[in-house]
Amino acid sequence: MQPTSADLTVPAQPDELGGPTADPADPAPAAPPAKQLNPDAVCAAAVTLAQTAALDVAEPGAVGEHLGLLAEEERVVTHYFACTARGYRGWRWSVTLARVPRSRTATVSEVVLLPGDDAVQPPAWVPWSERIAPGDLGPGDELSDRLR
Questions:
Q1: Phi, psi dihedral angles at 68 (to 5 degrees)
Q2: Burial code of 19-34, b = ≥16 C-beta within 10 A, e = fewer?
Q3: What residues pair up with 66 in beta bridges, in sequence order?
Q4: Whole-model pTM?
Q5: Measured between alpha carbons, how far is 68 from 45 in angstroms, rounded to an integer?
């Protein structure tokens, strides 16, 4: 689960220059509404470039159909492709393209494989030092110095 902005709150501390501190009882100011971006025409049209970038990274046959795109920022668009690799049901390839102002060419920024809402994912990771339970160790087993 991704942390939300509520999970990332920082307790109020005195300003280093002696300024006033925030009152924890006051609610945080509301964030301005997100601006709806229109996809950059050059980056949006570069589906073949995005698909080629995904094909360069993926195993043969692991990149499926184009699922859509998302305007991330001005002149930055992310294209999504189905992942057809075995064991990756619900995952999708994400290829981010960008272009500099006045350019007519998109450039590949990154290619990653991301889980979708229905993706099969492993359980949350637990550090090994917290996984050791009574009975897990026997005579002759050695422990890390951090556990002694």
A1: 145, -170
A2: eeeeeeeeeeeeeeee
A3: 81
A4: 0.62
A5: 11
All structural domains of the chain with their residue ranges: 34-115
Task: Write out the two tokens for 64.
Answer: 């499926």
Using DSSP's 3-state secondary structure scheme, residue 117 falls into: coil
DSSP-based three-state secondary structure for 97: strand
Higher pLDDT, 24 or 102: 102
The mean pLDDT of 15-39, rounded to a whole number, is 60
Burial 52-63 (b: 16+ CB within 10 A, else e): ebbbeebeeebb
Paired tokens of 21: 């501190």
Amino acid identity for residue 96 in this structure: T
Q: What is the Cβ-side half-sphere exposure of residue 140, based on CA atoms within 13 angstroms? A: 0
Alpha carbons 128 and 146: distance in angstroms, whole number? 12
**DSSP-assigned states of every residue in 60-85:** TT-EEEEEEEEEEETTEEEEEEEE-S
